[in-house]
From TrEMBL:
Belongs to the GST superfamily. Tau family. This is glutathione transferase. Its EC number is 2.5.1.18. InterPro entries: Glutathione-S-Trfase_C-like (IPR010987), Glutathione-S-Trfase_C_sf (IPR036282), Glutathione_S-Trfase (IPR040079), Glutathione_S-Trfase_N (IPR004045), GST_C (IPR004046), GST_C_Tau (IPR045074), Omega/Tau-like (IPR045073), Thioredoxin-like_sf (IPR036249). Residues 3-83 form the GST N-terminal domain. The lineage of its organism: Eukaryota, Viridiplantae, Streptophyta, Embryophyta, Tracheophyta. It catalyses: RX + glutathione = an S-substituted glutathione + a halide anion + H(+). Pfam families: GST_C, GST_N. It is found in: Cytoplasm, Cytosol. One of its GO terms (biological process) is glutathione metabolic process. Residues 89-209 form the GST C-terminal domain. GO terms for molecular function: glutathione transferase activity. Keywords: Cytoplasm, Detoxification, Transferase. The gene is GSTU21.
Length: 220
């Protein structure tokens, strides 16, 4: 492998977006390789992640680092000379890790239900999704970023979902902005960052991808 740092990703994945943003924020030179995780996983992906066989995979000096939250922390520690993502204070660090865990356990699962379910289940998912966002908005408060005045760990973890908001709204038939104005403003603020703009796909492209998924899984 010629490149010291390689990122195996899949463009619609909010998890892969995180790792790309973290690398970009640190100014790390890396090679990005797009994976076809649905139809044709590469031998390198299967070799580097034999257990889960999925992306993102961060390869540093030939060694794999798996799972996006771990990758962000790894990048923060290895390239530690500038722009730390996690707070140095142990309590604030613990709080950031809690909210990252909350996002992964709650938002991803509920977000999927907005396009993969219907009827009463969909209605319940829409309500839960908005409540999750309102909880996150409450944590954001009046701060420009979850990291305070600085774009940090929780911002990196959450922002990928912002590119999926139009898809969630379209297929779930609900609206986020009326109840989450501050969170939407936060998303727009993050999009002004070069790292975020580079990593996040066009939202309409995500809508098209979800349409493909619905056909693939036979969801009408």
């Amino acid at each position: 492998m010629a490149a010291e740092v390689i990122l195996l990703g899949f463009w619609p994945s909010m998890f892969g977006m995180r790792t790309m943003i973290a690398l970009e924020e640190k100014g790390v030179k890396y090679e990005y390789r797009e994976e076809d995780v649905i139809n044709n996983k590469s031998p390198l992906l299967l070799e580097m992640n034999p257990i889960h066989k999925t992306i993102p995979v961060l390869i540093h000096n030939g060694k794999p680092v798996l799972e996006s939250l771990i990758q962000i922390q790894y990048i923060d520690e290895v390239w530690s000379d500038n722009n730390s993502f996690l707070p140095s204070d142990p309590y604030h660090r613990a709080q950031a890790l809690f909210w990252a865990d909350f996002i992964d356990k709650k938002l991803y699962v509920c977000g999927r239900k907005t396009w993969a379910t219907k009827g009463e289940e969909l209605e319940a998912a829409n309500k839960e999704f908005i409540e999750i966002l309102k909880t996150l908005q409450c944590e954001l408060g009046e701060k420009p970023y979850f990291g305070g005045d600085k774009f940090g760990f929780v911002d990196i973890v959450l922002i990928g979902f912002y590119s999926w908001f139009p898809a969630y709204q379209k297929f779930g038939n609900f609206s986020i902005e009326p109840e989450c104005l501050k969170l939407i403003a936060w998303g727009k603020r993050c999009m002004q960052r070069e790292s975020v703009a580079k990593a996040l796909p066009d939202s309409e492209k995500v809508v098209g991808y979800v349409l493909q998924l619905k056909k693939l899984y036979g969801i009408e």
